[in-house]
Amino acid sequence: MNPVNYLYLAAVLFAIGASGVLIRRNAIVVFMCVELMLNACNLSLVAFSRMHGNLDGQILAFFTMVVAAAEVVVGLAIIVTLFRSRHSASVDDASLMKL
Amino acid sequence: MNTENMIALLIAAPLLGAVVLLCGGRRLDRTGHWIGTLLAAASFVVGVVLFTDMLGRDAEDRTLSQHLFSWIPVEGFQADVAFQLDQLSMTFVLLITGVGTLIHLYSVGYMEHDERRRRFFGFLNLFLAAMLLLVLADNYLLLYVGWEGVGLASYLLIGFWQHKPSAATAAKKAFLVNRVGDMGLSIAILLMFTTFGTFAFGPVLSASAAGDTSEGKLTAIGLMLLLAACGKSAQVPLQSWLGDAMEGPTPVSALIHAATMVTAGVYLITRSGAIFNAAPDAQLAVVVVGAVTLLFGAIVGCAKDDIKKALAGSTMSQIGYMILATGLGPIGYVFAIMHLVTHGFFKAGLFLGAGSVMHGMNDEVDMRKYGGLRKYMPVTFATFGLGYLAIIGFPGLSGFWSKDKIIEAAFAQGGTEGWILGAVTLLGAALTAYYMTRVMLMTFFGEKRWQPDAEGNAPHPHESPKSMTIPMIVLAFGSVFAGGLFSLNESFAGWLEPVTAFEHGHPPISAGVIMTATITVMVLGIGLAYVQYGRRPVPVTAPRGSLLTRAARRDLLQDDLNHVVLVRGGEHLTRSLVYVDHTLVDGVVNGTAASVGGLSGRLRKLQNGFARSYAVSMFGGAAVLIAATLLMRAV
Amino acid sequence: MSSLAAYTTSSGEAVQFWVLGTVAVIGALCTVFMKKAVHSALCLAGTMIILAVFYLANGAYFLGIVQVIVYTGAIMMLFLFVVMLVGVTAADSLKETIKGQRWMAALCCAGFAILLVAGIGNASLQEFNGLAQANAGGNVEGLAALIFTKYVFAFEITGALLITAAVGAMLLTHRERTERAQTQRELSEQRVRGDQVPPLPAPGVYARHNAVDIAGLLPDGTPSELTVNKTLRSRGQIRDVSGQALSDLKALEQRSQTRLGRDQSEPGRDQSDEEAAK
Question: Which of B123, B549, B557, C128 is most deeply buried (CB count within 10 A of its CB)?
Answer without folding.
Answer: B123
